[in-house]
Design brief:
4-stranded antiparallel sheet; alpha+beta; single chain
Amino acid sequence: LGGNISGVCRKSGEEVGGIGSIYDALICPSCQQSGSAVQLQRKGVSFLCPQCLKTYPVVDDVLFLFEYEKFAQLYPEVFGSL
């Protein structure tokens, strides 16, 4: 199991234009798999990709941020509610 988890790491020292909120750093996992880094937009209690229009829900304060095929496989009950 698992998935394609990625992140950005920086060396200690001088700050390089910090991010205001963790939500500003979220990108669409489906678009990332296709080679694009598209920032997600918050829409109510979920996040929406403005490029592929896929929705990533927040359920019980947990953001389900998976590529859609893996999302449907791992969490069919949550995926089915989209």
